[in-house]
Amino acid sequence: MANLPDESLIVVKNLCKSFEDGEVLNNISINIKEGDLVSLIGPSGCGKSTFLRCLNCLELLDSGCIRIGDVELSRDGIEQRPDENMLSAAHQMRSEVGMVFQGYNNLFPHKTVLQNVMLAPLVVKKMPAGEARGIALGLLKKVGLEGAANKYPSTLSGGESQRAAIARALAMNPRVMLYDEPTSALDPELVGEVLQVMKDLDSEGMTQIIVTHEMKFARDASDYIVFIDRGEIVEYDDGDILFTNPRNSRTREFLRHFTGTAVNY
Ligand code: ADP
Ligand code: MG
What we know:
The protein has a six-stranded mixed β-sheet with strand order 6-7-8-3-9-10, with helices on both faces. Strand 9 and strand 10 (232-237) form a beta hairpin. It has helices spanning 48-55, 84-96, 113-123, 129-142, 158-170, 188-203, 215-221, 239-244, 249-256, 259-264; strands spanning 10-19, 22-32, 37-41, 63-68, 71-75, 97-100, 176-180, 207-211, 224-229, 232-237. The chain contains ten helices and ten strands. Helix 4 crosses helix 5 and helix 5 (158-170) packs parallel to helix 6 (188-203). Helices cover 38% and strands 24% of the residues. The protein is of the alpha/beta class. It has a domain at 5-105 and 176-256: P-loop containing nucleotide triphosphate hydrolases (Rossmann fold), CATH 3.40.50. The chain binds adenosine-5'-diphosphate and magnesium ion. Magnesium ion is lined by residues 48-49, 180. Magnesium ion binds next to helix 1.
């Protein structure tokens, strides 16, 4: 794969991943261009989280290939023991990727929001404190939390916590942001402020992949939507096409459950 010219920032080829209970991801292949905002949708248990976790190497793929920027990770099968090269690629890949989860993003409770955002640049990148502080303050402004810099995580709303988690991930200057249902645990009135941050990042050219059930956001804000079912990419398309004229009956069946929300949001 390394020999093929490819403009994509992210290339996934024939990614397979199983757990003890069986196969979870079956031959996933997808290319994502720099600056794209991609929504992943699909029924519970279809493998969406596992896919994101493979992209940031929280899980090691069984076989296939992932390339993000210049970092490439490939494996022939679980018989191939992860060697030093593979582990080093996984480590590098993780540093290219920022990730935000549904909740429990583990902001340190005894540190302020600002200190939380500064922490990884200070510790991992050994950045001077003044520089880390400047970057963190800029990021807090970007996510609309400039007024919360000195607050402690327990005093934040759910939406503020998620925005702080986004700022903290951005502080490591990732090339890609991954979000696993970042708004699913939020009260409805707080969802919009988190999604707005992603829209703003999109307009700045950040590459983003979001697992979401916010169908209106997926349709309106994404460059395209990927529908996953039973560990396979069934269909991917522009939101308007996917919602109005899905090609696959499985996509149609899944989206039927969301017709109400898609209209109402
Ligand atoms: P989704 O995010 O689409 O709901 P997941 O990727 O979380 O789906 O899970 C897909 C399948 O993989 C589920 O059957 C789940 O039980 C299984 N699974 C996920 N993570 C693990 C794990 N660490 N160990 C064993 N099974 C797992
Ligand atoms: Mg999940």
